[in-house]
């Protein structure tokens, strides 16, 4: 019985499946390289049409690559820098709010 390499489910007769050509394998290998994965696929193997489409979809690939990039950023501490920015921004808001309450002055932000 054939198993779809993408979802690991059996490919049933009622499923829309495609038999991989050399070209198909090439595209999937490239996609898997972009994803940092190592798929074990060979020419003549059957996969679900939908799974192959999803896997080699350039948009989905971009999302995946972006996600990997963000993971790497996090490793290098760039992510925490971003949270610091958010934090100080929120801090400023709190200071403004506190100043408003204390001085009972007309709203600072209003023009
Ligand atoms: Zn599948």
Q: What topology does this entry show?
A:
Blueprint (H helix, E strand, L loop, with lengths): L16 E3 L2 H13 L11 E3 H8 L1 H18 L2 H26 L8
The protein binds zinc ion (ZN).
| CA-based shape | elongated
Q: What is the residue-mean pLDDT, rounded to a whole number?
A: 81
* Side-by-side strand order of the widest sheet: 1-2
The kinds of small molecule bound in this structure are:
zinc ion
Q: Estimate percent helicity.
A: 55-70%
Oligomer: single chain
Run of helices and strands: EHEHHH
Low-confidence spans: none
Q: What portion of the residues fall into strands of 2 or more residues?
A: 5-15%
Give a short account of the largest sheet: 2 strands, antiparallel
Put simply, the count of helices is 4
CA radius of gyration is 25 Å
> How many E strands?
2
Give the structural class. Answer: mainly alpha
Report, as a whole number of angstroms, the end-to-end distance: 72 Å
Number of structural units classed as domains? 2
Summarize the structure in words:
By secondary structure, the protein is mainly alpha-helical. 59% of the residues lie in helices and 5% in strands. A two-stranded antiparallel sheet has the order 1-2. The chain is elongated, with a radius of gyration of 25 Å. The relative contact order is 0.11. The structure holds zinc ion. Zinc ion binds at residues 4, 6-7, 9, 48, 51.
Write a brief structural summary.
The chain is mainly alpha-helical.
Descriptive terms for the model:
111 residues; mainly alpha; 2 domains; two-stranded antiparallel sheet; 2 strands; 59% helix; elongated; binds zinc ion
